[in-house]
């Protein structure tokens, strides 16, 4: 009951802030989603009455119904040899089927108007779906030659930008891991901050886990120059999409609980133990006890034996010299006494 009262009071007392929030969301949606983003290649053209044109029209017209049957991704080819056309369509995995089909239908018509007579082109429509075709194989590989599109939220983030960026990168790193390793190559989630931060990442599901991770990480790298310090941004590429905002922009399946992601606090680095510093000569104790025999090394034992032998040998030599000197002196004294006796 107390939680309900808290929510009720906040919604009734903070109407200006809610108006500001909704206006920001409206500005964001109008700024980026309404305009399509297309790429028209200059590597080849076709004539309106050519076989390539007929194959392209046939393939593009089949995409809306085909993607409705295949959920959110579809690819196919029509024709042979130089007239063969490759095409694919991708929708955000969280979109309802009818909205996905409608988006692909719009993109399939607009791409011919925006890129007339081009043998290769792609279009992102409403940041919800991608339609792409070419006269070369574009399936199951990450596209690296075509530049991505940047769509930035016009609102600057007011607060601790450094902490915001750190939290954002933690969130997106987790979503990139989930998406690249999953069969749908799609993930959404959010983290609590001064404002919740919501993220969405997606790859075309025909590329590998490695290529998906590379594509999404590259998108996050481009996000700094695209939307650094902003409340949201999108990177739309031929093989993947990266998107974040401070409001929920993605759909959640019915019955799904969207709990915030939790990140453990960063642990302090564990440093290896440092060896004790040897005592300086000035501080060394003059009467340091000798190591006990139990702890003595074989080298120390050998040195001790050598010292004992040397000391014993020196002592024996000194004793022998002393005895010889004593005998010599005794004989001289005896000779002096005998000589005196003979003289008298």
UniProtKB/TrEMBL annotation:
Regions that span the bilayer: 306-330
Keyword Protein transport found: no
Keyword terms, alphabetized: Membrane, Repeat, Signal, Transmembrane, Transmembrane helix
Superkingdom of origin organism: Eukaryota
Pfam families: Stress-antifung
Residue span of region Disordered: 263-297
Alphabetized PROSITE patterns for the sequence: GNK2
Domain Gnk2-homologous: 34-138, 145-249
Biased segments, Pro residues type: 263-281
Bias kind Low complexity: ranges: 282-297
Signal peptide: none
Keyword check for Ubl conjugation: no
Protein name, as recorded: Gnk2-homologous domain-containing protein
Originating species: Populus tomentosa (Chinese white poplar)
Lineage summary: Eukaryota, Viridiplantae, Streptophyta, Embryophyta, Tracheophyta
